[in-house]
Structures are given as C-alpha cells and as structure tokens.
Amino acid sequence: MPFRVTVIGTGYLGATHAACMAEIGHEVLGVDVDPDKIAALQAGRVPFYEPGLEDLLAKHVASGRLRFTTSYEEAADFGDVHFSCVGTPQVRDGYAADLRYVDAVIEQLAPHLTRPCLVVGKSTVPVGTAERLADRLAELAPAAELAELAWNPEFLREGFAVEDTLRPDRLVFGTRSDQARKTLEEVYEPVIGQGTPVVVTDFPTAELVKTSANAFLATKISFINAMAEVCEASGADVGRLAEALSHDDRIGGRFLRPGVGFGGGCLPKDIRAFMARAGELGVDQALTFLREVDAINMRRRSRTVDLARELCEGRFLGRKIAVLGAAFKPDSDDVRDSPALNVAGQIQLMGGDVTVYDPKAMDNARKVFPSLGYAQSLDDAVRGAHAILLLTEWEQFRTLDPEWLRGQVAEPRIVDGRGALDPSRWRQAGWTYRALGRP
Ligand code: UGA
User: Fold this and answer.
1) Average pLDDT in the 21-27 region?
2) What is the mean pLDDT of residues 70-79?
3) Which CATH number fits domain 4-201: 3.40.50.720, 1.10.20.10, 3.40.50.12100, 3.40.605.10?
4) What's the gap in Å between 267 CA and the centre of ligand 1?
5) Counting atoms of ligand 1 from 1, which one is nearest the CA of 265?
6) Which of 13, 42, 309, 395 could form a Cys-Cys staple with 68, CB 3.0–4.6 A?
7) What is the pLDDT of residue 143?
8) Could you tell me the residue ranges of all domains in the chain?
9) Is 352 in the pocket of ligand 1 (CB under 6 A)?
10) Structure confidence at residue 286 as a pLDDT band (50, 70, 90)
11) CATH class held by domain 301-435
12) Is 201 exposed, middle or buried (0-12, 13-18, 19+ CB in 10 A)?
C-alpha cells in the first residue's frame, strides 16, 4: 500500500473504479482506446451523468493521483495491478455476450507485461471466460510466471456508483493463488477495514456470483410485474400487494417495485447472456425460467402502450403524448434498453405525436431515437398534451403538482408507469389516472 493501479476501460464501471481507487489511496492510471474520452477525463470531466463522480474525479486529477492514457505500453510499465473494466454488450445476432473488448484487453496488454503484476477482471462475463483469459495471459506475457489473473466482479448500480464502490455489500475474489488473494486484500484494505465481507473463491464461482445476482434481481422485478398482470385481471392493487409482501423479511421490499420493468445496460443483456451460456454448458433447462422473466418484462412495455391508447379513446393519431423520462432509471443519463424510450417509440409508430422530456438523458436519447420529439423543458413537454406518461421516476416528476399540471394539458389523463404517484391525490385533482397493476 499504496499500489500503482491501472483501470482499463473508462465507462460507467471503469471511470468510477479509477476515481475510487485514487480515493482509497492508490496511484491510478486510467486507460481507454477512445482519445476523446481520455481527454475529457484528464480535464476532470465525466462524459456521462453519475452523481458525485465528477467531484471525486476532479479531486484526484488535481491531486495528481489519477491520470489517463491511451497507451497500453505505458499501462503495462506502470501497473502492479491492472483492472479490466470494459463492456460486454449483447451480440447483434443472438443472446450471447460480445467478448471482443474483454479479449482485446488481454491481447493488447499481455505482450507488454515484463514485470510482476496481477490482472483483475471486473466485467460481467459468461462463466468460463476467466479460465480462458488466464491461459491467453500465460501464452502472451513475456514474463508469464510473473503475471497472474484474478476475477473480482463488480456490483455497482448506476446512480449510486461511487457509494457502491467505496462501501460495497461484499467483495468477491476469484483467485488461483494465495499471492493473488493477498494482493487483492491489500488493494481493498480500506474497504475491507470498514467491515465489508469478502468471499474468496475460484474463477467460475466468482463469475457466476455476478450473473446469478443480476438474474435474481431481474426475476424479482418480473415476479412483482407478473403479479401486476394478475392484479389487473382481478381488480387487485399491486402497489398494496408489494407493500404487504415487503414486510416479510424473507421477501424484502427492494427490487419489488412494479412498473414498466427493467432496462439498462446490465439486467436485460445479462439474463440473455446467462441463458446462452447455460445452453453451451448443456444446462439450458436450468435457466428456461429466465426466458419468462424476459417475456414478462417486455410485456409490461406493450401493456403501458395499451393503457395509454385506452386513455386516448383507442387511437394515437392526432394525439399529443408527453413522455416524462428517457433514462432507464432516475439519476442516470443512460438510455440503453430504456423502457421509457421503447414505449415512446412504439406510440410514435402508431401515429402518436410524442414529445419526450428527461432532466439528464436528452442528448443520449436523441442519438438513439432521433425521430422522436424532444422538449427543452418539462413545461414545453406537457403543454397541450392529450395524455402524460410517467416512465422514469425522477424526483422532478414524482413531486409534480397535479393542480398545476392540469392547467397545462389539453386533457388531464396520466399513465403512471412507475407507480410513483398517489392515485387518490391525482384523481381528486380531476385526473384520469391509470397505472400498471392498479385498479
Ligand atoms: C444492476 C444491478 O443492480 C447492479 O448490482 C449491477 O452491478 C449492475 O446492474 C451491473 O451489472 O453492472 P443498474 O443496471 O445500474 O444495476 O440498475 P438497477 O438499479 O439494478 O435497475 C435496473 C432496472 O430495473 C431499472 O430500469 C429500474 O428502473 C428497474 N427496477 C429496479 C424496477 O423496475 N423495479 C425495481 O424494484 C427495481
């Protein structure tokens, strides 16, 4: 302590990990192939929205403890420990994870590794990847006996990335030697010192902890959304149902919020990659339930469109629809697989005049869905609307005043896609209020 640490890949995961490694005392070099990203980070600017990250980054760029480069050679010279934090998106033509970036890190870094070091994978990968990468590292590194691999999955949530990295629920170390375990314990010493539990295990178990955690969370969300479907058919209220279930400690209330479902760069593609990998391993039956989890989740999006259409007397043509929210969840500007944008896109295809507003995700949304209408402000989005759809529960939307809003719209009709509003308050203010799974 302190170590010289590199963090390869500077997206949501890597940029946060780099700043947090500096915060706990290490000397950090962030590495990315994208020179624009590196220039922004080196100037203390985070190229995406993540609360608290920009301050931490700027603090450690200024202190000199955090630098950035595009050079793998420089990274190899510098690092005692190399964290690989690149993305594993879904392949275009199937369910599997695209491992090209994970592979590229080893292919480009390993040939320069001439001094003792630990290469630590943090990306979410199909089980079996770490073993394959360890073999490749041994083949490519000039001082192969000095370079070792470990697997240390990351569980941070966007919107809470800094907090989750500095104060995680647990640390998981997949290692093959005492030396590798000791190095990770020393790197994370300030985090472990706060009482964070550490689980030391082998490579496949470490990889599986991550994929099964995300599969469990996705299942929990789809469970309550499946209950919402039953509630709709039976006149029950899924909001009250979830509340009552949450008082059972064995069930718990977290990730039991019904609504338009999960999106983002992780849960959707991770459950699909997990199914694909299970198929390769010959245990696809073990995960067929995830197909249902995925299907329930996608049905929530179409059901939201149906609710909106019902509110508009069966047709979107000639109707102005205000969509509040574009990010896949609040406190993020990430629009990857966003339920909000998906619903907005479907309604536009059906002839609706859709205007989207989001406090942070407008630029990203425009890039993905350039043909949708975008408003500069909440006021502009809702003015003259025939229906409002609340699809990302930003604070600004949860605290909307129904009286004020009523004065702005053409028709006081709202679909609460996140169960974020108080139905009786909105109905009292004259609104036709509809929510998934609620009478
Ligand atoms: C998720 C996991 O929560 C992290 O632990 C994990 O590290 C991360 O993926 C990853 O693999 O990198 P994240 O994608 O940031 O984190 O977002 P979540 O907070 O999990 O939310 C995912 C989606 O589920 C959002 O669209 C959210 O709106 C939705 N959600 C969440 C619900 O619909 N209901 C809930 O009760 C909770």
Assistant:
1) 98
2) 98
3) 3.40.50.720
4) 7
5) 14
6) 42
7) 80
8) 4-201, 211-294, 301-435
9) no
10) very high
11) alpha beta
12) middle
